[in-house]
Amino acid sequence: MFTTIATPENVTQQLRDLTANCTTRDAAQCCMAVASAIQTHPDRGARLMGLAAAFLMAAEASGLPVPDLMGYARNCMNTAEGKRPEFAAVSTYIEKEILHG
Question: Mean of the pLDDT values across residues 22-45?
């Protein structure tokens, strides 16, 4: 029996596969959980920077290029007709409560 040794390349490929195979519903729920966690911070600028920094740190830690991860997120959130229903509500929440609330 052989054991695969975890290398940065293996881990990055595993994370790439996991992001490609997660459900839209689960991704939207996690997105909402992050937005909800920062809602009570009084500084809107800090909330936006916190979301952006969390995304960037996740991309860097995963080894996935930022443009690739952004593309995966766009594909998860949208169809050819527009935003998926699971993300439409989260988008409205972020716009109204996080950025302008």
Answer: 94
